[in-house]
Amino acid sequence: MGREIYVSPSDQSEDPESVTIRKLADGDAFTIPSGQFAFLLTEEIVEVPDDALGFISIKAKIKWRGLINVSGFHVDPGFKGRLIFSVYNAGPVPVHLRQGQPMFLLWLSSLDRPTKLGRKNAAQLSFPAELIPSISGELQSIAGINKKIKDVDKDLTSRIHAVEREQTYYRVIALILMLFVGAMVTNWVREGGLQQLLAASSTGLDQANDASVDPRVNSSGAIPSNAADSVSNSTEAGGGVK
């Protein structure tokens, strides 16, 4: 492992757009989060002759952690410089690596003759300037999406529990009020409040009936003789009823 890396920002990054190439000192450690890409630069400078073809890979014990080489599997004839590995962490946990750690493999296969189509570029000693913008910015990984789903589920569950607690609180308050009102009504009935109410209602009804009866009618329901005579006398004095 060389001295330059670039790891795509995850949803934990404060400013994904500001993430850039990182320089490593001797033995510096770094991680590639689950579901993220990375560019890794080798420490060695490789020179492939025009009559050979290189094949690259990652050591098995690192691949078993979930780190996959997605940069291709060959090195062109005539290539000079440090190799760039594009990798993807397909595992469920971050992959921890360190500068100077042996992790890359290179095989050389001889061609039957030198090729005229070999690489003629200058030696590649660091990341090309156009390499990083292609994957800059936050990448939505499966692990990141899964975490967001879990966070939303946790928040929703918390809100549901809060609503349930609030409903329970209101139910308890309503039950206490009902018990209080019931106790007051029971006590009122026990103290004769209902009988008093019925008696008051009966008295009011009797008074209303008395007000609608002819004042000449006595308690037995008959009209006294003096009341009848007074009516007849008034009729005769007036010359009869018209």
From TrEMBL:
One MF term in the entry's GO annotations: dCTP deaminase activity
InterPro entries reported for this sequence: dCTP_deaminase (IPR011962), dUTPase-like_sf (IPR036157), dUTPase_trimeric (IPR033704)
Keywords associated with the record: Hydrolase, Membrane, Nucleotide metabolism, Transmembrane, Transmembrane helix
Superkingdom to which the source organism belongs: Bacteria
Keyword Hydrolase: yes
Polar residues bias locations: 217-236
BP-aspect Gene Ontology terms: dUTP biosynthetic process
Region (Disordered): 209-242
Membrane-spanning intervals of the chain: 169-189
Classification via Pfam families: DCD
Designated name of the protein: Deoxycytidine triphosphate deaminase
